[in-house]
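Dear support,

Our group has been running a series of protein-ligand predictions, and this particular one with adenosine-5'-diphosphate is the one our PI (initials K.S.) wants archived with full inputs and outputs. We had some confusion internally about which version of the output was final, so please treat the block below as the authoritative record. The input we submitted was:
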Amino acid sequence: MCPPDCAHMTAMTEAPEAIALPSYREQSPQVAARFQRLRERPVILEVRDVVKHFDSPQGQMVALDRVSFKTHRREFLCVIGASGCGKSTLARLLAGLEELSSGEILLDARPVAGPGPDRGMVCQTYTLFPWLTVLRNVMFGLELSRGVSAITAKSEAQEWIELVGLTEFADLYPHQLSGGMKQRVAIARALANRPRILLMDEPFSALDAQTRAQMQSYLLQIWRQVDITIVFITHDLDEAIYLADRVLVLDAKPGRVRELMEVAVPRPRSPGQFLSPSFIAARRHLEELIHPLSETAEHLPMVRLTKVGDDVE
Ligand SMILES: Nc1ncnc2c1ncn2[C@@H]1O[C@H](COP(=O)(O)OP(=O)(O)O)[C@@H](O)[C@H]1O
Ligand SMILES: [Mg+2]
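Confirmed final output from the archive:
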């Protein structure tokens, strides 16, 4: 028989199954009012029937197929989808680093045609200049793209560095920083150019779990203090729910919009909400969309490499 502690553990791990979850659509009056306010804000980014195909020796491959969505000013939009569904392609199109095959991308009602300072980008890999200090890395874009004087660039850069909590590290070089700190510098550098939207392509996926959780919390704090709209790409469902106002779910091969889901979890967000009914309901829904039940692991052949008699579950 199980000792009492064991029974307690079972009850704890099985609790989410036992709870009657609300629908992922169910919103408290406060959450519904927040979405109402969000819809009333101007549309900053509009993606209209975007198609992107790549030519390969095997023929034409459609990476994105008639993708359409709108993002409102100061919205936090997360984009999720299986690996290879076209998330990075979408980010590169929004950044103007790839050409559209057809369709249109409008930023502040003007078509995007190539890269521009109105879009900042933070990627998974660290893109800082290794020969420049933190301060110089953040100043670099200011002097180059906004053409401000060195004195102005320095004082603005210092403000952004303070915002990401790295003032005491301003004179260090990238190799002297942890992965999380490097990404904070990358965020400061992107924001210093005063973009209208910040594109983030899996920016925390190379970080360990604890640093990643910290970075998510930093990013939410930064977003609350700056007039910025964020398009954040991830394949991590918890990360998407924790951060987003709405989650754009992409289907794979070809990449198509499956759903644009409003996250009913109240703001401000905190890690304690990971176990809240609204969070779990949102997670279940996204799991059903992204990982339908046909688990490949279930089809593995049974090969026994153990001589121990009792079966494990
Ligand atoms: N430059 C390219 N040339 C050819 N195929 C590409 C190119 N970039 C991406 N692809 C293909 O487009 C699809 C989507 O890729 P990507 O946007 O990187 O997906 P994700 O970021 O969702 O993993 C993949 O099948 C990928 O192989
Ligand atoms: Mg990608």
